[in-house]
Structure formats: C-alpha cells, structure tokens
# Entry
Amino acid sequence: MLRTAATAAALVLLAVLVPGAARAAEVYPGLDLDAALSALERAPVHRVPGAQARLDEAALRPLLDPDTRVLVTPYAPLELPLAQRYDLVDRPLAGWARDRDLDVVLVTGTRVRIVGEATVGASALDDLRENLAHLDVTA
# Structure
C-alpha cells in the first residue's frame, strides 16, 4: 500500500514537472513546439513536417519585417479540446513571442492568425476554393 501511494505521488509530481512541450507532443503528434521555436530563432519562416499548408517562401520572406516570424503547423487532432490546445501550444507560443518582442503568424491549414491578435482567412467561397486548390495560404 505504501509503495503504491509513493508511486502515485511520484507520478503526480512528474506530471506537474514535465515541461508543457513534452505534454504537447503526447497529445499533438507532429508538433514539437520546442523544435519549432528553435527553428524560428534561426529563420523567419518554419514549416513543421506534416503541415498541410504551403507558402511561397521566396515571395514571402522579402515582405516580412525583421521582428515577424511565420510558423506553419499541422492540424491539431480532432479530439484535442480547444482549451487544451491553447494551454499547450498557443499560450507558450504567445509567451515566446512576447519575450522576444516578435509578431508570430501561425498558419494551420487555411487558418492564418497573428498570435495574440486577429485571425484571417478566405472571406468568400471563391477565395477559399483558390486556397484549397493549392493548399497555399499565400495564393
């Protein structure tokens, strides 16, 4: 009994101490947030492997301000509640951007969002059709 209680206590302690990125990787496979943020330290645009959206990076890079980063991610699993995604991905990403005084544009599928600000997307069916035909949010 004492051994079981000690094991349970250790598991609770580990659950509290495990970094958010490790938990995010467990529930959001395909997104290694630490690796993505590290990539954004080195380059203004990072496309996470498995991301569905495509960007014309050659056209995009000259248009970016020095304090702007673009992160292209795969879709979150459908079973991942929005609040949990916010806690595991959006909040750490916003904190990272704030600490570095950067604007981060988060692209997931055809959804484009400035972290901590507005979400933009196709406003008409023709625009959406064009974006979906190429899976290119810069189309």
Notes: Residues 1-21 have pLDDT under 50 and may be disordered. The chain has six helices and five strands. The longest strand covers residues 68-73.
